[in-house]
Structures are given as structure tokens and as C-alpha cells.
Design brief:
Layout (H helix, E strand, L loop, with lengths): L2 H7 L8 H8 L17 H9 L8 E5 L5 H8 L3 E6 L2 H10 L6 E4 L13 E7 L10 H10 L1 E13 L18 H6 L3 E9 L7 E9 L2
Parallel strand pairs: 1-2, 1-4, 2-3, 4-5
Antiparallel strand pairs: 5-7, 6-7
Helix pairs in contact: 2-5
Length: 216
């Protein structure tokens, strides 16, 4: 992201959430101007779910940083009881406007602060590009909080672009992850059970789909 855009959005390492509200408050149901808004389920997630359909009956799911809401709607179509959150109130209102009768619970929440009532509550947690949208100094905290959402025997899917270079505040957003994120999740009580990668990336060196499961 160029410096002019950073200044326009008010990106501040010590106010890491503020720029999301600026971004979503300036768009509409089209998602124009939101760089990660596919206005459809993320294609890597969609490809996986199409090969693993009907896995949600009787199970709960949480979408981290739901943005415009399309991934949450896809999980709902698979039978999950879905909660989806974003730190931006404007994003949540857009989700509710786009999908008024979806049955998805769209709520505003702060990943950095965490949500104690969601501790080990969800059978399936989906995280796509949220960690890399926050400055590197919050990585350990947000990985802990995401891990805490995963129920016993529950699964976490992470889709992220990775780089070999050091994560520094000056180089983002996005602040692409290093391969070490996988070990970080395993250090939080999860075990990696699936991993795939592709070189078809926009910014990084690889894009990963990793699935973790809480150890019992």
C-alpha cells in the first residue's frame, strides 16, 4: 500500500483497527474500494468447501473478520450455525443489508481484545487474510485469540499469503505472514492436519490453506 493511501485511511500502528471503519464507511453494497472484497466466497476456501460439502449440519462456525459477509453465507449454506464478526460497524451493517434473511449472526467484535464468551465455542473457525491486515506486533495476541475460539475437536482454517522477509510495520498493510505462523498455532494447542500452497499470489511468495484441529 502506498503512503498516500496509508495517510488517507489513517493507518496507525497504535490504533490498528481504525482504518477498517474508514474503509468500510466509504463503500457500499458493491464493496468498491475494499481491496479484499471478492463479493463471493474466497476462491481457495470455496474450492475446498466444494470438495468437502455437507460438513456443517449440527455444528457451529465462526468467521473472523467477515468483511462483506460472503464466506459466512457459504458456511451457512453448508448447514453450519454461523456467527460472523468484524471490528468495523459499517462492515457489519453492510452484511446485514446484503443478507437480511440469511440466518447468520453478524456482530461487531474486536479480535485484538478477544471475546471471552466465545472461548472454545466453535466447531469450525475460518480466518482469511485477517492476521495479515493487522500490524506485526499484534500477531501473537491475535493467533492466541483465534485459537481460543476453536472447540475441543474443532477445526480452524487459515488462508494467508506468506513471505520470507521479516514482518515490519513499515512494509504494510498487508503485513504478510511468515511460515512460522503454523508453529504459532500449534503452540496454542492446535495440530495442523492439512496444508496446501500455491504460487498464484498477488503480493507474497505463496498462498496457504492450512487446517488445524484442537487436541483433545
Amino acid at each position: 500500500m502506498d503512503e498516500k493511501t496509508r495517510e488517507k485511511l489513517g493507518i496507525d500502528e497504535n490504533k490498528p483497527n481504525d482504518w477498517f471503519e474508514v474503509l468500510y464507511s466509504e463503500t457500499n453494497e458493491s464493496g468498491e474500494g475494499v481491496p479484499w472484497a471478492n463479493m463471493a466466497p474466497h476462491p481457495i476456501f470455496k474450492n475446498w468447501i466444494d470438495k468437502n460439502s455437507n460438513i456443517g449440519e449440527g455444528k457451529t462456525a465462526l468467521v473472523v473478520g467477515c468483511g462483506m459477509g460472503d464466506d459466512a453465507i457459504e458456511l451457512k449454506s453448508q448447514g453450519f450455525d454461523v456467527t460472523a464478526f468484524d471490528v468495523s460497524n459499517s462492515a457489519i451493517e453492510l452484511c446485514k443489508t446484503r443478507f437480511p434473511d440469511s440466518g447468520v449472526t453478524f456482530v461487531q467484535a474486536d479480535l485484538i481484545k478477544g471475546v471471552s464468551e466465545w472461548y472454545q465455542k466453535f466447531d469450525f473457525v475460518l480466518e482469511i487474510f485477517t492476521i495479515q491486515a493487522l500490524p506485526p506486533k499484534y500477531e501473537e495476541k491475535v493467533i492466541q485469540n483465534i485459537s481460543d475460539f476453536v472447540a475441543n475437536n474443532g477445526k480452524l482454517m487459515v488462508v494467508t499469503e506468506v513471505q520470507q522477509g521479516k514482518r515490519t510495520y513499515e512494509n504494510g498493510p498487508p503485513w504478510l505472514l511468515n511460515n512460522s505462523y503454523m508453529e504459532s498455532f500449534e503452540n496454542k494447542g492446535l495440530k495442523q492436519i492439512f496444508h496446501s500452497k500455491s504460487n498464484e499470489v498477488e503480493l507474497g511468495e505463496e498462498i496457504h490453506l492450512s487446517i488445524f484441529q484442537r487436541k483433545i
